[in-house]
Amino acid sequence: MQMMDISQGLEKQPVVLHSQRALTSFQYIRDNEPSASEIRLENSSGCTCSQSSSCQSGGCPCATPVVWTQQGVQVAISVRHGAKSWTGYSDNDVPAGSFVCQYAGEILTNAVASSRLEEYDRSPESAGHALLVVREQLPSRNAYLRLNIDATRKGNVARFFSHSCDGGNLDLHLVRRTGALLPHVAMIASQDITAGSELTFKYGDPFDGKVVNYG
Q1: I need a labelling partner for 94 at 20 to 30 A (CA). Which of 14, 115, 155, 171 fits?
Q2: Section 17-25 average pLDDT
Q3: Over the stretch 138-161, which tens digit does the pLDDT of each residue have?
Q4: Which of 130, 80, 74, 133 is nearest to 102 (CA)?
Q5: Is 209 in contact with 98 (CB distance < 8 Å)?
């Protein structure tokens, strides 16, 4: 049986592949990347402490999901091939409320996302595409920001998490780093997850994804 770290050392917590099959080709990335559509991403630490003594001593008060999204996968996850094709599993117990990872991939404009979806619909090989679309309600409550993250060609381990009609064991939370226009999608354990459990979440309506906003 093949056992390897599919993140190729990008994650502090190795993402282990348990399978005799080869993965479909994709590039592992730890954080979101702009596509050729030239969306600009922020370059922010997400920390507002600057050079405070608490930050320097390792006790940064900004240790929130905003910062977690910059730290990569936080739990032991393995990828296996089963009845649902490739699937991610938790290798350890994960308490409810724990950050698991962010959903990382290419950030697309709405036009490029629509084009990609049409392309995937035409290609049987793309039946397992991993293009996630969520909407964030803006403070005015009269408009939404649509976020398109495509982990099909470039993505992290979240691309292997499966759909669950009952809501799954992961919740999606939109978090925004300091000064950033675009949020990140943090995946948080919605319940206690026992070792060996499949990691799942509810996709929901692709244009009305249920999200929680951190101020």
Answers
A1: 155
A2: 84
A3: 788 888 889 999 999 999 999 999
A4: 74
A5: no
